[in-house]
Write a structure and sequence with these properties.
- The complex is a heterodimer of chains A (about 210) and B (about 700).
- By secondary structure, chain A is mainly α.
- In chain A, about 35% of the residues lie in helices and about 0% in strands.
- The C terminus of chain A is likely disordered.
- Chain B has about 700 residues and is an alpha+beta fold.
- In chain B, the strands form eight sheets. Chain B has a four-stranded antiparallel β-sheet, with no helix packed on it.
- In chain B, strand 5 and strand 6 form a beta hairpin.
- The longest helix of chain B is centred in the middle third of the chain and has 15 residues.
- About 15% of the residues of chain B have low confidence.
- The chains are: A mainly alpha (about 210), B alpha+beta (about 700).
- At the A-B interface, helix 3 and helix 4 of A face helix 9, helix 14, helix 16, helix 21 and strand 11 of B.
């Protein structure tokens, strides 16, 4: 992108001139012209947020008007909320000392791809397919279980489990790093009638 | 006042003056629980601190170079006590606010740090103090003036911040305006940031400035100059400055000749001053690990098998091959099992054999034989290219972009293939010989694969040595591990909650290091979801992280303009290198592990001897930030690439050859850098308008460079 030229002082509104001056004071010489607009919008939004918060605090303290203490409190609360800063040095040195005391773990030999436990990986399927077949249930409320179910119907992702084997067997590949791919497979997923307590795989009897 | 009383009670209790304490407590009618919270914080100070407190301020020498304060810092401590420990020596009760602060405010650590700035003397006189000192230093002898001038910058900053903290805004402003022009040119960026801190509230959010306050600025001054300074400052009217010097500066005194301006200028520039001499005294195992020995057949067919040796520990006599050295253990090399390393798999052994074959055909580089440079230009990146990496065998190149994508290209004609889907996999014949080719999917083979997953610009990428994995780190605070066999994301490592600026796999795989905005570097293993080591100590963001070739040490370059070398085994910082005048953006270890080259925004490449902990060379020539540094495969040439659109080649053999490292040099850290940048420069190669972001020497010593074309 081309280096920006500053707006000519005569035509720019005063706020924009002030913002350009601030940028210059902070040593920023090259910027796109829209940066000034963005900075002004940010300043406006920030100030109105702070003042609104200050009004709320002032009315909570049953004061008749907003004063500097309210504004200071509003700024402090917003800073903790929106602009977090990294932890202070003491804290970092402390946790570093704790962490560095444990010896390095030994590496297990011949263990295939060295990945964290599955719940910390992103290798589980993160989707469910809707049931394709509508089975007529003889008793009310009972839903028949299909041939194959993949994955526990719970909110946590977990490794796929096999239900009763079907004609299309999904083989969990032992290849390095290859997750179970579900594309191109027709299968249905168990839909529980009550909250699931654990993994699926228990066939119901129609 | 109440806080002063509480603090005095604390002091009395610690000095075992029980009776006085009781009397005072009765008189002041304070409750026990007022002290309860504060006891916990100061109770962990060492007894040495109380002894220091008893020493009157006049005995500056004891505090100056005996290192009591550094030792206090290392204890397990609660939030308030480092400041308490440090300032107990000051005649005024500075620690009162800290003790009270822990009880009263809910951001105790921040206010504890800030309250180190309790008032020292009359604010209107600060200008007098400073100009008085300035006058004294300017009138001193030439040989001392250079050393004593080091005092100007830290004193200026600390006095200014004290004025701001104690809310004397107008005095602060006039102090700043009057003296900021006197400072050295390389501090101008810091001063600009400082000029925006005009109120006490501004100081709270700026972590780097806070760290600057708690850590002492280190100055290395010869004994003669120090005596001169001390004598002057201990005269009656200069006591205030003396107090400030005691509080915020650590003066590392050495016996010997005062340093010249040139020597000092080479070493200063970092946010924490220079490095103390004992910071660079630990033993570092910079040698390389023994490679396992293979029998490399000289004919073209690959004959693996019975002659191969697996574990490096078994030293059976074998046929010598290219690169094997004597069987004696290098004293500078770490023991093989110092840190656990993954064992070699069969594919790794094949890789090593390939490596050795290629090494046999390697071009020997030198001043007469410069490498050819092949430049890979990323087109249509629109200034979005933020990271590049190339595999060791130069078969794949990855680019990290500001639109949060990671794109992998195949450099060779062989396309990128991913593993087939499970349905297709069940159809192949698992017993066939070429099963490893059959599992690859030909239908989706392509030269480019795009990996989506990050939610912020990707600032660092790294291939694993076995080419199975790719790491990428991003502004969203995560480091992601991608599989290069399925081109999907496997793990997201969360730990830094702030932008991660750089990441790298270890030369043996399995471990990787990342460094980010939270000022720490972390060591991870691919099978642990939490980091194994945390390297904390930098004052500002960690911008660059690299492993040593023997995987036992990690170098981190930071925006506080220092480079630190960390030991992987226990997380200790074993070296601190200062001298750059801008944030460091590139690091390169020499292949023999002895030297480190660093490049920063100041356009200089500095060369360091790791064993001795000294700067051994300075390469001037670039005019803009150096983002890429790489040694050739045998360490003869150092290539540097920069934002000024050039690649420069330097003669590394000559730069490292005449090192006089006698005892005097290592004791005092005096360095005499020869002005030989022009002699060492072997060539400058300009691109049209493409900043150089990455450099890589292939196994045959062809130089590959990468950058994104920017059309301005």
């Amino acid at each position: 992108m081309e280096a920006a030229k500053m707006a000519s002082p005569k035509s720019a509104p005063k706020d924009a001139q002030v913002m350009a001056q601030i940028l210059k004071d902070m040593g920023i010489t090259e910027y796109e012209p829209r940066v000034i607009n963005q900075m002004l919008e940010f300043a406006y939004r920030y100030v109105t947020t702070i003042l609104e918060d200050a009004k709320i605090y002032s009315s909570h303290a049953k004061k008749s008007s907003v004063d500097a203490d309210d504004v200071r409190l509003a700024i402090q609360c917003r800073t903790d909320q929106s602009f977090t800063s990294p932890p202070p040095r003491d804290f970092l040195l402390d946790i570093a000392r704790q962490k560095n005391q444990t010896p390095l773990p030994l590496i297990k030999p011949y263990s295939g791809p060295r990945l964290p436990p599955d719940r910390y990986c992103l290798t589980a399927p993160n989707y469910r397919l809707k049931s394709l077949q509508k089975k007529v249930s003889s008793t009310a409320g009972r839903i028949t279980v299909p041939r194959l179910s993949v994955g526990a119907v719970s909110s946590r992702p977990s490794t796929p489990t096999l239900g009763t084997p079907s004609a299309q067997t999904v083989s969990v590949s032992a290849k390095v790093g290859a997750p179970v791919s579900l594309a191109g497979q027709r299968f249905t997923v168990q839909i529980p009638s009550s909250q699931p307590a654990g993994k699926s795989g228990i066939p119901g009897i129609p | 006042d109440r806080q002063t009383l509480v603090a005095v009670l604390q002091f009395l209790r610690r000095s075992n003056l029980r009776e006085s304490e009781e009397i005072l407590r009765r008189e002041a009618r304070l409750l026990g629980d007022d002290l309860g919270g504060s006891v916990a914080t100061v109770a962990t100070s060492s007894p040495g601190v109380a002894a220091v407190a008893a020493v009157p301020p006049g005995k500056g020498e004891a505090r100056g170079d005996c290192g009591v304060r550094p030792s206090c810092r290392r204890e397990p401590r609660k939030v308030g006590s480092p400041c308490a420990a440090r300032s107990l020596g000051i005649s005024r009760c500075c620690w009162d606010t800290r003790v009270g602060a822990v009880v009263v405010e809910d951001q105790p650590d921040v206010s504890a740090v800030l309250s180190a700035y309790n008032q020292q003397g009359d604010p209107t006189l600060y200008e007098e103090y400073y100009s008085g000192l300035k006058h004294f230093i300017e009138c001193s002898l030439d040989c001392h003036r250079a050393e004593l001038s080091q005092l100007f910058y830290p004193l200026f900053v600390h006095m200014y911040l004290e004025l701001v903290y104690n809310q004397h805004e107008s005095e602060a402003k006039s102090f700043f305006d009057r003296f900021h022009g006197d400072q050295e040119c390389y501090y101008q960026d810091d001063l600009r940031v400082l000029s925006s801190l005009t109120k006490k509230e501004h100081m709270k959010g700026n972590e780097t400035m806070l760290d600057f306050r708690t850590s002492k600025f280190v100055l290395r001054i010869s004994r003669d100059s120090y005596q001169l300074l001390k004598r002057h400052l201990q005269e009656k009217q200069n006591n205030q400055i003396w107090n400030i010097v005691q509080e915020h500066l650590y003066i590392d005194i050495f016996d010997g000749m005062p340093r010249s301006k040139q020597q000092i200028d080479a070493m200063v520039g970092s946010l924490a001053g220079e490095a103390k001499r004992e910071a660079n005294k630990a033993k570092v195992f910079f040698g390389l690990l023994k490679e396992p020995e293979f029998d490399v057949p000289l004919d073209d067919e690959d004959e693996e098998g019975e002659n191969e040796e697996g574990k490096p520990k078994k030293k059976k006599p074998k046929k010598d091959n290219v690169g094997s050295k004597s069987k004696k253990q290098d004293p500078n090399a770490p023991p093989q099992n110092r840190i656990p390393l993954p064992e070699l798999k069969d594919s790794d052994k094949l890789d090593k054999v390939m490596n050795m074959k290629e090494a046999a055909r390697r071009v020997r580089l030198g001043p007469e034989c410069l490498p050819s440079i092949c430049f890979y230009t990323f087109l249509n990146a629109y200034q979005g290219l933020t990271a590049v990496d190339i595999t060791d065998d130069s078969s794949m190149i990855v680019g990290g972009f500001a639109d949060s994508t990671v794109r992998v290209w195949s450099v060779t004609p062989k396309k990128l293939r991913s593993v087939k889907t499970a349905a297709d996999l069940s159809l192949i014949d698992k017993e066939s010989d070429d099963v490893l080719e059959r599992i690859m999917d030909e239908k989706t083979a392509s030269e480019l694969k795009i990996l989506y997953g990050h939610s912020g610009p990707v600032y660092g990428t790294s291939f694993s040595p076995d080419r199975n994995y790719l790491l990428s780190c991003s502004e969203d605070g995560t480091v992601r591990l991608w599989s290069l066999q399925t081109f999907t994301c496997l793990v997201g490592y969360k730990g830094h909650n702030y932008p991660v600026w750089d990441t790298q796999f270890s030369p043996y795989g399995y471990y990787f290091v990342s460094g980010g905005h939270d000022r720490v570097a972390r060591l991870w293993a691919t099978d642990h979801y939490q980091p194994l080591r945390i390297f904390a100590g930098h004052l500002a963001d960690v911008t660059c992280t690299r492993f040593h070739p023997n995987s036992n040490y990690i170098a981190t370059g930071s925006a506080d303009r220092t480079i630190r070398l960390w030991d992987v085994l226990n997380g200790n910082c074993v070296r601190i290198f200062t001298g750059h005048k801008g944030p460091i953006h590139s690091l390169a270890f020499s292949p023999n592990g002895r030297f480190l080259a660093t490049g920063a925004t100041d356009g200089r490449v500095l060369l360091w001897d790791i064993g001795h902990g000294l700067m051994v060379g300075e390469l001037k020539g670039h005019t803009d930030t150096i983002y890429a540094l790489r040694f050739s495969r045998d360490g003869e040439i150092l290539a540097s690439g920069s934002m000024d659109n050039t690649v420069r080649l330097w003669d590394a053999v000559k730069a490292f050859e005449d090192l006089e490292t006698d005892d005097f040099t290592t004791a005092t850290g005096h360095i005499n850098l020869p002005e030989n940048s022009q002699d060492l420069l072997l060539g400058t190669y300009m691109t049209k308008s493409t900043p150089v972001v990455h450099l890589h020497f292939t196994r045959r010593n062809l130089l590959l460079a990468a950058g994104a074309y920017s059309s301005q």
